[in-house]
Amino acid sequence: MTSSIAENELQSHFEATISADLRVEPRDWMPEGYRKTLIRQIAQHAHSEIIGMQPEGAWLTRAPSLRRKAILTAKVQDEAGHGLYLYSAAETLGADRGDLTDKLLDGRQKYSSIFNYPTLTFADVGVIGWLVDGAAICNQVPLCRSSFGPYARAMIRVCKEESFHQRQGYELLMTMMRGTDAQREMVQESVDRWWWPALMMFGPPDDRSPNSEQSMKWRIKRHTNDELRQRFVDMSIPQAEALGVTFPDPDLRWNAERGAYDFGEPDWSEFMQVIAGNGASSVERIANRRAAHENGAWVREAATAFARRASTKENAR
Ligand code: BYC
């Protein structure tokens, strides 16, 4: 009886915190569903950053100049940093990093659909910066106001860095568009391959998004998947015009009544296939991640042995 009264009080305090737009912090009481949803989303986000190092990382040894190589190296390192902040945010909820990695490797947790497509040309590096980081910013800026403190704070730094990534991608593409016909064709061909997968990054349409409603109530998410997708389309079209490329969508047109662009339907059956682990590069991505994890075992062992020794010494004092 007493414990259920206490639980009700905690629940009311949690709800009041959410409705007052205040932050929930790791030591605060929270419903189990809220904790689980956050671990699921943050872990998926962390895995995406780490797996997301691979498609662009594949071009590090083939960048066309030292300058492009230095920029790309910095960007890929930033993604590793984002993954680390996010795993740390998940740990504040009681998750264990090793366990999250196991869940990624055996398919119990997902990572973003976008990283299951191959990077076939150097133009893909520019298009990923422009469209993929662009979509990520659109999705993540509202997450800076997410109700869970550590996630919201991690997002502030992540968004600043993603914004630099987007500009470097756009600048790379601008340079290529000022180059030869072959370079311009390479950019257009890359845009044609990445446009639809970029739209799918925002997740399934609202009427097929099982988590959105509750996540919006908890203010983990601030906008629905379709709202953010629309925002991204509206933002990208003038950028494409300035660049001199087109998007592969015959239904794309300005709708004056809505004050927004109409656009076609992404191929949701392809999306479902990709998130089920059947994307063009899915097997390669997980195999590389598994190999990196196994090759790093000695580092983890050495670090934990050192921590154990340090704490034994501390206790002996
Ligand atoms: N890919 O009910 P829904 C980056 C899953 S990294 C895969 O709408 P939710 C970058 C979803 O998880 C960008 N799976 O879910 C890095 C759920 O399955 P589970 C990563 C997806 O959570 C390197 C099911 O579909 N960004 O920027 O309400 C280089 C139903 O979906 C996807 C983030 O992670 C997808 N695209 O909304 C460059 C942002 N979409 O978990 C750039 C944070 C949906 O129930 N995450 N699913 O098995 C979010 O904002 C939300 O989790 C989502 C999905 C909008 C993605």
Describe the structure.
This is Ring-1,2-phenylacetyl-CoA epoxidase subunit PaaA. Pfam families: PaaA_PaaC. One of its GO terms (molecular function) is phenylacetyl-CoA 1,2-epoxidase activity. The chain is an all-alpha fold and 317 residues long. It has a single domain (31-316), classed as Ferritin (Up-down Bundle), CATH 1.20.1260.10. 68% of the residues lie in helices and 2% in strands. Strands 1-2 form a two-stranded antiparallel ribbon. A hairpin with a 4-residue loop joins strand 1 and strand 2 (260-262). 33% of the residues are buried. The structure holds benzoyl coenzyme A.
Question: Tags for this entry?
Answer:
317 residues; mainly alpha; Ferritin; two-stranded antiparallel sheet; 13 helices; 2 strands; 68% helix; binds benzoyl coenzyme A
